[in-house]
Structures are given as structure tokens and as C-alpha cells.
Amino acid sequence: MPFYSKRDLQFQLFENQKVLELTCFKYFEDHSQETFQMVLEAADQIAVTSLFPLLTDMDRNEPQLIGGKIKVHEGMKKIVRQFGQDGWINATFSYEEGGQQLPNTIHLAAGFIFQAANYSSSVYPFLTTGAANLIRTFGSQQLIDTFTPNMYNGKWQGTMALTEPDAGSSLTDLSTMAIPTEKEGVFKIQGQKIYISCGDHDACENVIHLMLARIKGAPAGVKGISLFVVPQKRVPDNEPNDVLTEGIYHKMGYKGAPIAHLMIGSNDSAEGYLVGEANKGLSYMFQMMNEARVGVGMNAAAIGTAAFQSSLAYAKERPQGRKITEKDPSKPQIPIIEHADVKRMLLFQKSVTEGALSLLFFCAKLGDLVHVAEGKEKEEASLLLDLLTPIAKTYPSEICCLTTSAAVQILGGAGYTTDFPVEQYYREARIHPIHEGTTGIHGLDLLGRKVLMQEGKALQLFAAEIIKTISSAKKLNHLIPFAEKLEKYLQRAQQTSFHLFGKASQNPEEFLSDASLYLEYIGILTISWQWLSQGITAHEALDKGSPETDFYKGKLMAMRYFFEYELVKMDGLGKRLVSDDMLTVEMKGEWF
Amino acid sequence: MPFYSKRDLQFQLFENQKVLELTCFKYFEDHSQETFQMVLEAADQIAVTSLFPLLTDMDRNEPQLIGGKIKVHEGMKKIVRQFGQDGWINATFSYEEGGQQLPNTIHLAAGFIFQAANYSSSVYPFLTTGAANLIRTFGSQQLIDTFTPNMYNGKWQGTMALTEPDAGSSLTDLSTMAIPTEKEGVFKIQGQKIYISCGDHDACENVIHLMLARIKGAPAGVKGISLFVVPQKRVPDNEPNDVLTEGIYHKMGYKGAPIAHLMIGSNDSAEGYLVGEANKGLSYMFQMMNEARVGVGMNAAAIGTAAFQSSLAYAKERPQGRKITEKDPSKPQIPIIEHADVKRMLLFQKSVTEGALSLLFFCAKLGDLVHVAEGKEKEEASLLLDLLTPIAKTYPSEICCLTTSAAVQILGGAGYTTDFPVEQYYREARIHPIHEGTTGIHGLDLLGRKVLMQEGKALQLFAAEIIKTISSAKKLNHLIPFAEKLEKYLQRAQQTSFHLFGKASQNPEEFLSDASLYLEYIGILTISWQWLSQGITAHEALDKGSPETDFYKGKLMAMRYFFEYELVKMDGLGKRLVSDDMLTVEMKGEWF
């Protein structure tokens, strides 16, 4: 059963984002179309042979906490080691670090393939990469030498240990303590962490937690948070480090990945090693956030893609009903893909998932430019990426709850049963608006921080990019109406934004009360822009006489769908955003 | 933990729908405020003491097919009998039939309480009522005497056996055969039925299937479908009737209710008894459909209500973060209900579930009027109910997938775990856009049939009802802006409808291609109207000096929410509905 479209991935990377441009930079100079294709082929191999076959089985056989240790699906042992041995965890790192200097964009594309095949299994290496990246970027050489090699080779699991019972969205309120010892950089850690993905499991030999804690006496709030490496077993003596698995969470979806509740230092003997400087922990985390958040957007888009492909395959094969104009019941039934309403639900999924992918790869390429470009190019890429990150995280996360729902709907009663994977995709999609910052948090980030930073410079860059695409589209006859429509909506979005900014200083609570809606509003504008860009690419390919007319016509239809059915949603959202009725601020708890 | 609001249910029934008006009709003359309250109290008792306590456990311990028999949760035996013995199954039927002549509206309200407490458990009696209703309405006295007493007392389960492997949405294609025997009205049945809710289980002594089948030689299509009673065991000899349980479906939610795959007549010895006349089976079913479909809308609204109440209780207690204007991290955290974005998600749930309830009870009362009124009143109630039924089924079904999602979001990571019931509500909500006719089917029903019937008379009645509410609202100062807004949207909806009707004869496929969107569009208009009605009731109560100011202010805020955040969605939908881009018709399968 197909779980992604190879053809579309090629389109996204090579035709639309023109990822080969990156090979002009020194860091990527050894790479080429061939090396990129080899990476994607290798990812496809693993996905098809190892990951996808376990999709259902990992859902049905959840991890269990047995005798203080989490036991995961037997098949994960091989998979975790394979991710390490084949170099997936540190592929983007430098040759000196044992990496392959692979662009983030291609690495993310490989991740997309893994996630579409089996999201739970993809979580393990994703987390190890993130944790190792923190150590290699901010840690001492000693920390790097001690911990990263076995993370790279897949023997050790990495985690991000942030959340606590009283500190979820409010990281300010972290209370895990770090008490200095006689050894420099070595602290005793005490506290508990909840919802720690891959926080303990038996498919690895050690778990390396990248943990936020507060050094005794540190300032209150976010300015007193430090980052520590806290291994489950000490290195090199392999003795337990007083990090106990207190519980395991059972959850609605992505059941194959274990989520742990950890007690640290219950016996007063958990050692943690300070990463970088004291009290800079949160800023280190945030420097890695953009990547992690674009990654979560990709998780959602990948699950949405798998659900789309699954419902598409079903719709092509399932006969039911006849054309509306056919009244003769003795005529054979037609495949449901011929019904307009089913095509609508498929186009919804196609336009939204491929639109999201387009944005995600655009952001990934910006991430590569931030890494390898210089001067103004680097600075602008960085600003634009900062602005787009809450959108790239949230748009796919929110909308793929709806696209997976459409996939279930296409299968009807069958879609609600466990006989088909769409119900699992529906459950798995639902985590993404929650983790790596809820949608509400990202709304505040976009409206309260990103659009206003550097006096709105990022927002100007964003508008300039959209205008660039509009100008190119206006040169192509068939795209002129779409370019003009986007131009109109861009202007309206700017007016809406300015209207809101007017409230920023007078009444911050009112200003931010509909930040989630603003995020949705700008999200739709952003994906419309990405579709115009994809439309240009498709149009040009057809103009050049490409024989793949089906594929490119499908692209143009999906663009039309997005403009006809999705872009217009900005009308209602925009009306609400400029309304003066501050009812969500005014509402009181006791009135519910 | 609260799963519904008693106060709101009182408001809906007695203040808003003025259900006591029904007691002026002879059929209901023995009833009063007191008898209605007793019924509601009795339902609450069962829900609190028997149903809600099993909510989670029935989800975790699914029915299993063991040795050809489905074994359900042990607790269901007592519940199923209690529903029977306490008279819930036939409460609306006449005294002569052993019923209580209870209005459908109050019966539905009791059902709402059961469904909000534990949806799976509520399915059992709901189906028995529907099946018994078919027998008593269309069956011979002999069938009535043979089958209904043990259905009423809860010993026997009733089912609706429609769906087949090749006939889901397309009932035209039913192929289960009925072969006449020597005995009049007795047929041999052969075929298979899938997705039969409560099609077999061990909490009853017999299962009475109301089954659609085609009498040998009957015309093709819907005109050749007949209705049969097919018991699992023959009556009175209690011998097996060759109805075998071939399989059980495992599904995403409402796992406590068993869904069976049945083989009928594999050994050529399944007896079925014709209900009413041959070839009229589908029309009999459809005469019962309105009730069943309003019932499904209520299922969805009940689950949405339970999720709302659950997330509301959590939001009041969970401290996290501080006011946007509070920068001092040493200040205590505040309950999340004080954050505007959380209030927005709660108001969304409140406005949508209470708006849906208002429509559902309006429809239920129409159902009662159809039953007991006469002449023009009856005729108009019937027409209006026909028109509103696809909306009353679909609006709650679709939107409660989103409100249960909002409930999960409010709980954040906790909401995704099985530690709280919201994830279960999210899974259980998802069935309703599928069963009793998918959303696509209801879209076609509304646009292709209902709005055009009797030259648009139902649509005129609908508009007249809305205008009546608008006129009343215009007499109340604070409601004038809302009345004017609704008036404007009503006019636009009429224009949009006429625009679409213009296409009906030229090109039916284009006319109906966005029928699902039209249903959504009219659904929002309908709920806005219901909110204006609730606003009037609340406004009048406050004007009269009611001391319950919190409750009524909450009502007015929820109305404001609906007008500010939901009604405006008609803008984008309306734009699409009048667009000439027929892309979902034009799209081809091979372009995906």
C-alpha cells in the first residue's frame, strides 16, 4: 500500500525548491543529484522493508512498563540500530563529526519518508538527533566525546526532557533542581519529568536526557534555567544514575513510541553535566527549536500524506453508487473516485498536504541557508525562518487532523474499523497541535513576537517573497487570476495585521486574544503562496512540453482547489480578527 | 465528573422549546412538568450510577467473538435489562402498547443523558426502540404480538440490518434474497449483512433483525426492496434461525457496542417474516429515518457535551501560566480558564453543542407535532422536519469532531493520554458523520431533494421561522444587531440557494457537486437562528430579574461567540458555492 508519492517528493525537492542550488555552497559541494537520490532511495528501502510492515503491529502492541523498565516492540531493536549504523542520526553533521554534510532539506525529506511509513518508529532517531545536536553545539569537547558517538551509532537514545507536572506550556515554572558538587560542571539533579518521549526503553543500551533544570540559587523564571546531560546509566562505568521510570503513559496514538514519567535523584544520586553556560538552558533549547518545530510540522504532513494515499487507493478500487445522472440500477456501480464529493475530499487532502510539504521544504532550505550562507542572505533567511516556524509547525499539525478525518470519511464505515490504517492515522495526527508548543503558544509566538521583531522586518521580508512569486505568476497567462487573488488577500492580511498592531501597546491581552486565529489566517495565506509557487513550476513544465501531463494537471487542480475552497476561509477569519467584540477576554469562568 | 449540564437541559426543554405546550394535546394530556422531571431524574440516576462508571472500562474491554457468539462487557447485562424493565424502550408508545405516551422530545432528552454518560451503552436500547417501532408501525398484529413484548422489556435486542459488502451508501444495490415459502408472509432469507450494530451479543436472549432484502423476482433498484423480521432464534421454539455471526469489527471508538458481520441462510434455513407489503421496505425505513437521524445528531451532541464538561472542569482546576501582562514569575500560576485562548476553545464547545441541542430539541418537538397535531400544523411540522433532518443529523456530527478535538487541546498532553476521557470522546465522535447516511448523502438529500420539494415550500417555511425569530429579537434592544446580522445572512443564503437552483436542471452533477458544503453553509445559518432564539429566552429571563445571572450571561456570551466566530464562516463558504469553477467535477482520478 502506498504511503507517500515518490513523484511528488521529487517535485518538491528538485523542481519546486531547487534544492540542488545548495550544492554551490562549500559545505555541500560534494553533494549532487545522485547523492541526494541515493539518500532518498535508501530511506525508501528502510521505510518499505522495515518500518511500514510494523505500522499496525506497533499500534496493537503498546510499550509496557515491566519491573521499572519500558519494553517496546521487539522489532524496534533492529530499527534503532539500523538508523544509527546507516548514519541517519548525524547525517547533516560535518565530516569531522562523522557526518555526511547532508543538507537539512534532504535529511528532512528522508525523515518524511520514515514518518509516513510509521510515525512511532521515526520518533526514536528524531529525538536522538535533536539531543546530540544540543551537545555538539553547546557542550564541551568532553561531553561531545563522551556522549555523542554512541548516540550517532544508535546504541544510545537521546531525549528532550523539559516538561514537569507543573510546567508544561509554562516552562518558566520548571522546578527540577541542580545542586553543584565539588566537580566542576557536575551537578546533583532532583525532580521529575513527565511526557518524556523515548524516556526509557529496551531497544537501546542507554538513554541520554537533555534536561532543563534550575541551579540552586538561580534567578526565578526563564532566566534561571540551565541545560544538563543526564544519562540513565553513567559513562563509562555503566552504573545506574538514579533516573527511575516511574510510569508510562498510554495514549490515543503513536503508541509504538514510549512516553515516560521519570523521577530523577530520588536517592540523591543523579548526576547531571552542565551544557554550556549556566542559566542559558532555555536559549540553547530555543536555538534548536526551529528545526524541531519544522520537524513536527513534517510529522503531521507525513501522516496526512499517508492517510491521503491510503484513501486515494481505496477510492480508486471501491465501487459504490452511480453517476447522479444515471438512474438505471442495473448498470454496474462506479469507483467512488468518480463522485464529485469524494474528489473534493481527495483534493482537500492533496492540496493541504502538498501545500504544507512545500512550505516545510521551503523552511528546511532556509535552515540550510542559515547554516551555510553569509551576510545578508544568512540574516534574511534566519529572520524569515523565525517568522515562518510557528506557521510551519502549526498549519500542518492542525489541518492534518482534518485531512486524516477526510480519509476516514472516504472509507466510510470501513474507515472507522481497525481493518484499515486510516483510523490509526486519525489518532496519530492529533498529537501534533499539542507537542513542541501548543497551537495557542505558537499563535502568541507569531503575533506577540515574530511579526513585531526588528520593527516588522520579518513580516516585510515575508510579504516581499510573496510579491516575488506573484510577479512571476503574472507572467503566465493561466496563473494571472490566481496571482491577482493572492495579491488582494495579501493586502488584506497586511491591513488586518496593522489593525491588530494598533492594539499591541494599549491592551496586550486584547491584542493577543485571537492569536490562534491570526496564526490560522496567516497560515492559509502562506499555503496559498506556496501553491502559487507550485503552480508556476507545474505550468512551466507543461509549457516545456513535459510528457507527465497527468501529474502536472493534478498539481494545477490542487492549486485551484486551494484557492477556491481554502483561501476563501480568510474572509470569515479576517472579519473576526478586526472585530471589536472582545468577548473571549470579557468572558468569565463562572458564566460557563 | 460532570458529563452534561442539568441546568442547560432544563433551559433547552422548558424555557426555550416550551415543551410543556405539548401537554395541551390529548395524547400527552396526562403529562406535566412533574412527570417530565421525574423522567429526567430517573435517566440521570441510571446515567450516574450505571452508565458513566463503565465508560472507560467498556472502552478498554472490547466485545469479542468467541465460538461464534459475541461476548460484551459483563456490566451490559444489567443495563440492558434495566432499560427494558424501566420502560425506556417503548416510553413514547401508547398506553395500549404498554407505553407511557411520553413525548419524543422528553425521550430524546433522556437519551441525551445516557449518551453523554456512555455512548456505547446507549446504543443497545436506541436500536431496539427503532426496530420495535418498525414492527408496531408496519407489521401485522401477529408480528407485533410475537416480537415486541420481549423487545420492550429488554430481553431481546433489536437491530437495523441494512448494509451489505456491496451496498453501503448505495442501498439500491442490496442483494440479500428472500424466497417465498408455502407459508404466507414467511420467506427464506439468504445473504450477508455487515456493520450491524448490536447484531449479536450475550447480554440479551434473542436478536430481532429488521432486515432489508429483495424478494426473488422483485424489480431492480430501490423499488424491489422489502422489510423482514429475521430473528436470531425462532419464536417460540427458540431454535437457531441460521443467522450466523461471521465476524466482529474492531473500531476506533464506541468499542463497548458490538458490530457484527452476519451470514444469513448459509444452511438454507433462515426464516424471515415480511413486514407490511412487499417492495415497500425502503419507504418504511425512510419513514422512521427522521427520528433515527435526529437521534444520531443527538449522539454527537451528547458526546460533544461530555467532552465540553470534562475540559471545562479541567480548565477551572489546572494552573498553568500567568496573565499576558504579568511578567513576574514568582507570582502564582493561574487556572487556564483565565486565558483568552482557552476561553475561546470552551466557548466554541459551548456555543456549538448548546446550539446543536437547541436545534435537536426543536426537531424533536416537530416530531411530536407530526405525531399529535392535525391539519396545517401537522403538515407544516412534517415538511419542516423533513428539511431540517439532514442538518440536525450532520451539523452536530461534523462539528462535534471539532469540539471534542478542542477538548483534547485544552488538556494538552494530558488530553492525549488515556488518563482522561477526552481522547475517548474524540474517537467516539468520529463515527457520526458516517453512520445513518454519510455527510455526503445528507448533502445530496438536502440540496437535491429537500429544498426543492413541493416547489420549495419547506424552504419557505424554514425562512419564515427564522424571520419570526428575527422579529422577536428586534424587540429586544441588545439583540437588534444580532437580528440584523442574521437577516443579512438569511438573505444571502436565499440568493445562494437560488443561484444553485438555476443549475439543477441544466447540469445536475454540477448542481450537486458542492452539496456537502451547502449543507455546512445552511447548518451554520440554522444554528445561528437557534442561538438568536436562545438569546431571546436568556434576555427575557434577565429582563424579568432572574437571579441566575451567571447562567444567562453565559448564554448571551455563547450566542455572541457563535455570531462572531462561526456565522462569519458563511462568507467563505458562500463565495465558493456561487463560484463557476467546477473543479471537483472536472478532476480526473488519474491526475491525483
From TrEMBL, chains A, B:
* Parts of the chain that traverse the membrane: none
Q: Which GO terms describe its molecular function?
A: flavin adenine dinucleotide binding; oxidoreductase activity, acting on the CH-CH group of donors
Q: The Acyl-CoA dehydrogenase/oxidase C-terminal domain covers which part of the protein?
A: 279-444
Q: Does the keyword Oxidoreductase apply?
A: yes
Per its UniProt record, the required cofactor names are: FAD
Coiled-coil segments = none
User: Which part of the chain is the Acyl-CoA dehydrogenase/oxidase N-terminal domain?
Assistant: 35-155
Keywords attached to this Swiss-Prot or TrEMBL record, sorted alphabetically, are: FAD, Flavoprotein, Oxidoreductase
Q: Which Pfam families match?
A: Acyl-CoA_dh_1 (PF00441), Acyl-CoA_dh_C (PF12806), Acyl-CoA_dh_M (PF02770), Acyl-CoA_dh_N (PF02771)
Instruction: Give the superkingdom in one word.
Output: Bacteria
Task: Note the InterPro entries from the entry.
Answer: Acyl-CoA_dh-like_C_dom, Acyl-CoA_Oxase/DH_mid-dom, Acyl-CoA_Oxase/DH_mid-dom_sf, AcylCo_DH-like_C, AcylCo_DH/oxidase_C, AcylCoA_DH/ox_N, AcylCoA_DH/ox_N_sf, AcylCoA_DH/oxidase_NM_dom_sf
Q: Where is the Acetyl-CoA dehydrogenase-like C-terminal domain?
A: 462-587
Residues forming the Acyl-CoA oxidase/dehydrogenase middle domain are 160-263
Concerning its family, UniProt says: Belongs to the acyl-CoA dehydrogenase family.
Protein name, per record: Acyl-CoA dehydrogenase
Native species: Aquiflexum gelatinilyticum
The organism's taxonomy opens as: Bacteria, Pseudomonadati, Bacteroidota, Cytophagia, Cytophagales
